[in-house]
Amino acid sequence: MTFQAYLDTIKAKTGKTADEFVELAREKGLLVGEVKAGPVIEWLKDEYDLGSGHAMALVGVFRDRLNGTGPSKEERIDKQFAGPKSTWLLAYDELMATVMKFGSDVSVSPTDTYISILRGKGKFAIVAVSAKRMDVGLKLKGEPATDRLALAGNWNTMVTHRVQLGTLENGDGCEIDDQLKGWLREAYDRAG
Prior knowledge:
six-stranded antiparallel sheet, alpha+beta
């Protein structure tokens, strides 16, 4: 299991992101001096029923944050759009401008490979970019697949559907249209 897979599983099981666990550990006094694995593992097992592998992933996060080596949300988002992927930043900004209008409870939680879009603590969409494409994953359980709204399958198990956006022939953007905005709104509404 990859490090990110551990963090994704922790989020799925507990509903909490690594950043939220950092704050909880800080409140418990576990982020002082050198982070000791034993007390962290015991706390996470007792309160969240996490095994030692998952707990050790969080110990790594805690140590990174304590040493100031862990990236911030902004740094993680910037990394998503580095190099040839930078062409997607305007499309992402347009998408997020729409999503942020859904409610004050919308936030993002970036990982090293994608950006989760949350309503409160519930993930309702994700965004992943490559040089040639931006993928928008949506939680729309029970919705039938279409040519455009494909089942996510193994692409990302945190969502049910996937919309692949490619650049238009003239390179001036992508298909962030009313249909995609409607699916995002539906996913947001279902997450409430």
